[in-house]
Design goal:
Length: 423
């Protein structure tokens, strides 16, 4: 049977970074990727531009990581957002910082990121086997045996190694290759996989008005209510699409909203179209506008009230707003603008969500090395773990940091044990 030091399963952001770090430490690495090429998901990130990471310092960065940011701390400090930038700059993929401290490749081409990593892996001497669908991993004495079906069919092949790094991703966008097989590997070694659900995904309101689709709103507020209680409050930009409420704000509340829906809880979103004005100030502004056209709250006609509404809202939003508020009058206008309620009934599933929440339980993985607590040779990295981030480059940084730490730890462990044997 063929033998190598480390097998990496999955050629995404985490797997490629794990292989790079292990090779740089001096180990032989075989990377098995079931697609015909590595980085298929990277190519669709950031709308094809790839938001590689976010330059915020750890204290701020950590607030965007769920469910346990402390687990990521060691990995982040071992291979930080600055290290990620430095690496890309050193391999000929210069980076640039944009709004919200988001880091992108200067070319704004995600493909340059995936190709840059793959070229560097080849330069370091990695054995890349693409088209290799891993079907199982088992322990055989001192070694781990990874079985896979090669492209073109034939009998399954096997490769044995001292360490295996599972970097198979989660369940989101399965067309990119992430179909949850890493969870099967984890379970076969006795690992717990926590409840998985789509995150950073569109939330669909009941009786969703198709006229809303295509409207983008800037600087609005969004409050999430679960079973009538407020649980999250955010401000920023929101988009209505064919799938429902999304954009940065919609995505931010989707993690808690999806989980609540899956648990049969009542989920509502309250859209605040004027977050910079409190209710009293908005009431005063509406009164001023009514007075300016020579009318009063008691006598203003529906037509004139609509005219005022047009000065307060983007034009495309006026009709759906009026349709959603049939009893609108001068006295309830301000409250309606600050509290437009949407009952959420469903969400976009794994087929189009950005990230999977849940995964291999962090309790059974050592945060300082990414090594399994249940098998010394097994490591996990990337989205397969129960670790996810907000939009803004946080998820790729999770993949890069955990991948790099897994690669370095696995390599150092192997090299140290060899040194020990030689002594
Ligand atoms: C549309 C979209 C846009 C996104 N944009 C951003 C962004 O701009 N910034 C950001 O930070 N994050 C973004 N993300 C999230 C980010 O892309 C992921 O969290 C990250 O790529 C996860 O990396 P990974 O290596 O853990 O998993 P993946 O990238 O999913 O890689 C896993 C790899 O393992 C392979 N594999 C799986 N099973 C097997 C098997 N049995 N045998 C062999 N190989 C296998 C898969 O083919 C795949 O290539 C986006 C996600 C999506 C879907």
């Amino acid at each position: 049977m063929k033998r190598t030091d480390i097998v990496v399963i999955g050629g995404g952001a985490a797997g490629m970074m794990a292989a790079i770090r292990a090779l740089r430490e001096g180990c032989d690495v075989t990377l098995l990727e079931k697609n015909p090429f590595c980085g298929k998901k990277i190519n669709i990130t950031g709308k094809g531009r790839c938001n590689i990471t976010n330059s915020r310092p750890w204290q701020e960065f950590a607030t965007h990581i769920h469910p346990n940011s402390q687990f990521l701390r060691s990995a982040f400090y071992d291979f930080s957002n600055r290290d990620v930038e430095e690496l890309f700059n050193s391999i000929g993929v210069p980076t640039v910082e944009t709004q919200g401290q988001r880091i992108y490749p200067e070319s704004m081409r995600a493909q340059d990121v995936s190709q840059g990593l793959q070229d560097y892996l080849e330069e370091l001497g990695a054995e890349l086997i693409c088209g290799a669908d891993v079907v199982g991993v088992r322990r055989d004495g001192e070694l781990l045996v990874t079985s896979f079906c090669a492209a073109g069919g034939g009998a399954p092949e096997a490769i044995c190694s001292e360490a295996v790094i599972v970097a198979t991703g989660g369940l989101s966008y399965p067309t990119t290759g992430s179909t949850g097989f890493g969870y099967e590997i984890a379970r076969s070694f006795g690992h717990t996989v926590t409840e998985c659900f789509p995150s950073l995904t569109a939330l669909k309101p009941r009786r969703y008005d198709p006229d809303l689709s295509g409207i983008d709103l800037e600087n609005v507020g969004l409050n999430l209510f679960v079973d009538g209680s407020p649980v999250q409050s955010e401000e920023g930009d929101l988009s209505f699409t064919d799938n429902g409420i999304e954009g940065a704000l919609g995505f931010r509340v989707s993690r808690k909203a999806v989980r609540a829906l899956n648990h049969g809880q009542k989920v509502e979103l309250e859209l605040d179209l004027k977050p910079s004005l409190n209710l009293a100030k908005l009431e005063a502004r509406i009164t001023r506008e009514i007075t300016a056209i020579g009318s009063s709250r008691a006598t203003i006609s529906d037509t004139k009230l609509r005219g005022i509404l047009r000065t307060l809202l983007p034009q495309k939003l006026v009709k759906p707003f009026l349709d959603a508020h049939p009893g609108l009058n001068a006295d309830n206008l301000a409250a309606s603008l600050k509290g437009w309620f949407f009952k959420i009934e469903s969400y976009t599933g794994y087929e189009r969500c950005v990230v999977t929440a849940g995964g291999v339980s962090l309790k059974e993985v050592v945060a300082k090395s990414m090594r399994s607590r249940l098998d010394d040779g097994l490591y996990f990295a990337g989205e397969v773990l129960d670790l996810d981030g907000d939009t803004g480059g946080y998820n790729l940084q999770i993949a890069f940091s955990t991948g790099a730490l897994a690669g370095r730890s696995a390599a150092q462990r192997i090299l140290n044990s060899r040194e020990g044997e030689g002594a």
